[in-house]
Amino acid sequence: MNYRAVAYFLSLLLVGCGLFMATSIIWAVFLDSTDTVIIMAVSTLLCIAVGLGLRFLGDKNIDALHAREAIAVVGLGWFAVSILGAVPFVLEGVLNPVDAFFEAVSGFTTTGATAITDLNSVSRALIYWRALSQWLGGMGIIVLFIAILPQLGIGAKHMFKSEVPGPISDGLKPKLKQTAGMLWAIYAVITAVETVCLMMAGMSFYDSICHSLACMATGGFSPRNESIAYYNDPVIEIIITVFMILAGVNFSLYYLILRRKFNDAVRDYELRTYLGILAVFSALILANTWGLHQTTLDNIIKPVFQAVSMCTTTGFGTEDSNLYPSLSKLLMVVLMFIGGSAGSTGGGMKVSRVIILAKAAFNTIMNSFQPHAVRAVKLGKRPVGEDVVREVLAFFVVYIALFLIGSLVMSTLIPDQETPILSAFSASIACFANIGPGFGVVGATENYAVIPAVGKIVLSILMIVGRLELFTVLVLFLPGFWKK
User: Fold this and answer.
1) Residues 6+ positions from 349 with CB-CB distance below 8 Å
2) Which of 287, 364, 433, 443 has its CA 20 to 30 A from that of 147?
3) How far apart are CA 308 and CA 326, in angstroms?
4) pLDDT in tens, 335-382
5) Which helix (H) or strand (E) holds 119?
6) pTM, to two decimals
7) Apex 87 CA angle, 82 and 88, nearest 5
8) What is d(CA 147, CA 234) in angstroms, rounded to the nearest whole number?
């Protein structure tokens, strides 16, 4: 392990994070007090200062950044930006250090779980920083890192693979640097379009930006305590529903559309499966909740909004899903596990992995009475390699194991006398799958403030492990990984 090379690239990452944090000072100048300006400025300078400190300890020898160092940069980088991203929450006095770390991790991992009980008591600049942290984490701070830095050599490929979600990450362009840049360009343009659409629907400029940053990241942080329910506007709900669906699509398909390969994008097997899952589950939840709302329009829009919010792991809410029938709650938990497409900003297991698992299971069943038949697992017409199938199976086993461990730990920590199992179960999967709101005491109209400090640390680790898809973080706990 070349520790100096790791330190050097971590330094660049933290300086970049500090520069993005500096944009919150602009909002503080126009919308908040002088104290907030100072807090955001001090937080920014601290982030940059730590980065510069690591720069002097580091070694900019690009050739030294091989697979091991690249994984270390990605894994440690997410912990580092979360720690420094928590500083303004502490300085403003909104949260204690543990809660602030939980909030920052929730932001960068696009989870959307919050420990803040009243957003009206928080400065506009800090609310914006919460949303921006989600936007940075949505497409991936490391992917942005690759896009703007000079050639990273062999390490760039390992860094990209470690952060981009999904079992199959096909390059959009021959050069990885161009791929990362294209992903971020598409991401930024769609975010800008959503901002304009929300403003046209009557939302303020500030609220439009915050919601668009959180929506395209499938993060769910809203500047309002009531989330999207605050506006009680079906047009706004429809706009956000559409963009949540777009955020759950593999972003490489947008590049195909830009290249006028529309038919290739539409025929994508994972895309059709993803849209089919949304359609079927939305219809089932809609039917199961029909009559709970006062108008026919609400009976249609609100259940569909909740289904899309859960499947894309965004976590926005238009009402209290705790009031839904048990069947609808169960369907939404299933959507939490499935998540968005590979290569999207959504969390969960990813649709492509669910497809591979289902087809691998089907082939195993068929081989029980036709043992000599050769059957390949395919995504549409494209065969999936045996190495990918094994990796997906390993991912599934570890995913379920960590989820169960998290649920067991949370069952001893969550102060819920009425539905302790439901609260522990949903808190674990909501954080692990990067969704945010669950059920029970961590439901859509509640928050995570009631969880004790130990519980928030456990959930924070689950959020990072889930966002980096298990292995990039878990490998950091192996002693052999750090040996030279």
Assistant:
1) 337, 338, 339, 395, 396, 399, 433
2) 433
3) 18
4) 999 999 988 888 889 999 999 999 999 888 888 877 777 778 888 788
5) none
6) 0.92
7) 120
8) 38
